[in-house]
């Protein structure tokens, strides 16, 4: 079996939301699984010197036009949430807390968190919002709430972000295919060709 695709994302990234809706179909075409790796863009930007797109003149306006267009193109439900952007540390910790127990459940949960924020306008920036999504998905919210506060999960999340930075993950979404980096949802067609051809 080919190696999994590593998918780095931030729950506050609208382009990550688009990628989250497309990556599984792409992976399936190449008989690959996907390892979902939530990160926090704040620490990444501190190292890269970048800023959130919505804080950048012109680029922010383009993003606000482009993301709904992308979602219409792919049939992905979308509505700009308020507030935007938000802190996503609780959601990221929740995914890591679930991953070791049941990776498929962790992925379903991650997709539900994305939908809650970018399709249904629910604030997942606070722990209560994250746990409400978990409860909707049939996950023990009380147990997950305890896990989010577990020092081991906090340390694991920080280590995951630090490792992503070490790998030069400079934004989200970001993908590694057999250690080959691809940044941005617009690189999915290039990834598709890369895997089909075995690189070049």
Automatic annotation (TrEMBL):
<dbReference type="GO" id="GO:0018845">
    <property type="term" value="F:2-hydroxychromene-2-carboxylate isomerase activity"/>
</dbReference>
<keyword id="KW-0413">Isomerase</keyword>
<comment type="similarity">
    <text>Belongs to the GST superfamily. NadH family.</text>
</comment>
<dbReference type="GO" id="GO:0006749">
    <property type="term" value="P:glutathione metabolic process"/>
</dbReference>
<dbReference type="GO" id="GO:1901170">
    <property type="term" value="P:naphthalene catabolic process"/>
</dbReference>
<dbReference type="InterPro" id="IPR001853">
    <property type="entry name" value="DSBA-like_thioredoxin_dom"/>
</dbReference>
<dbReference type="InterPro" id="IPR044087">
    <property type="entry name" value="NahD-like"/>
</dbReference>
<dbReference type="InterPro" id="IPR051924">
    <property type="entry name" value="GST_Kappa/NadH"/>
</dbReference>
<dbReference type="GO" id="GO:0004364">
    <property type="term" value="F:glutathione transferase activity"/>
</dbReference>
<feature type="domain" description="DSBA-like thioredoxin">
    <location>
        <begin position="5"/>
        <end position="192"/>
    </location>
</feature>
<feature type="active site" description="Nucleophile">
    <location>
        <position position="13"/>
    </location>
</feature>
<dbReference type="GO" id="GO:0004602">
    <property type="term" value="F:glutathione peroxidase activity"/>
</dbReference>
<protein>
    <recommendedName>
        <fullName>2-hydroxychromene-2-carboxylate isomerase</fullName>
        <ecNumber>5.99.1.4</ecNumber>
    </recommendedName>
</protein>
<dbReference type="Pfam" id="PF01323">
    <property type="entry name" value="DSBA"/>
</dbReference>
<dbReference type="InterPro" id="IPR014440">
    <property type="entry name" value="HCCAis_GSTk"/>
</dbReference>
<dbReference type="InterPro" id="IPR036249">
    <property type="entry name" value="Thioredoxin-like_sf"/>
</dbReference>
């Amino acid at each position: 079996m080919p190696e999994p695709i590593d998918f780095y994302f931030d729950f506050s990234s609208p382009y990550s939301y688009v990628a989250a809706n497309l990556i599984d179909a792409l992976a399936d075409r190449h008989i690959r699984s996907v390892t979902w790796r939530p990160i926090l863009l704040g620490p990444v930007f501190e190292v890269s010197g970048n800023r959130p797109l919505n804080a950048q003149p012109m680029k922010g306006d383009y993003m606000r036009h482009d993301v709904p267009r992308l979602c219409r193109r792919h049939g992905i439900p979308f509505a700009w949430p308020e507030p935007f952007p938000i802190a996503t540390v609780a959601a990221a910790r929740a995914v890591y807390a679930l991953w070791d127990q049941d990776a498929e459940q962790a992925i379903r949960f991650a997709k539900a968190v994305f939908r809650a924020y970018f399709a249904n306008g629910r604030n997942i920036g606070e722990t209560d919002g994250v746990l409400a999504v978990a409860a909707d998905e049939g996950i023990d919210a009380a147990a997950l709430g305890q896990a989010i506060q577990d020092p081991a999960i906090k340390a694991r999340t920080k280590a995951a972000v630090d490792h992503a930075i070490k790998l030069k993950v400079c934004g989200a979404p970001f993908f590694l295919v057999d250690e080959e980096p691809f940044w941005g949802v617009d690189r999915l067609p290039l990834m598709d060709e890369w895997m089909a051809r075995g690189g070049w």
